[in-house]
Design brief:
Strand order of the largest sheet: 1-2
Largest sheet: 2 strands, parallel
Strand content: 5-15%
Distance between the termini: 32 Å
Helix content: 40-55%
Order of helices and strands: HEHEH
Shape: elongated
Structural class: mainly alpha
Length: 71
């Protein structure tokens, strides 16, 4: 994200009378650089925690990740 993009998102949320902006934990890390922006106080930021659960193929994934990490 760039500062102008964040400012535009905040302004759009404020103009729309949004209750909050919603982001993921991953994107929150990117947005922290703008956390001291005065406009942010006008619109709270809610963070979604996303968890992945594999329904199948866990062993295959583990094997492939082990190969990549061994390089």
């Amino acid at each position: 994200y760039r500062s102008l993009e964040w400012q535009a998102a905040l302004q759009a949320a404020f103009t729309a009378h949004a209750q909050a902006l919603v982001t993921t934990e991953k994107d929150l890390i990117r947005l922290r650089q703008f956390s001291k922006t005065p406009d942010q106080a006008r619109v709270p930021v809610w963070v979604l925690r996303i968890r992945v659960r594999l329904l199948s193929g866990e062993e295959l994934l583990d094997d492939r990740l082990a190969r990549v990490c061994a390089r």
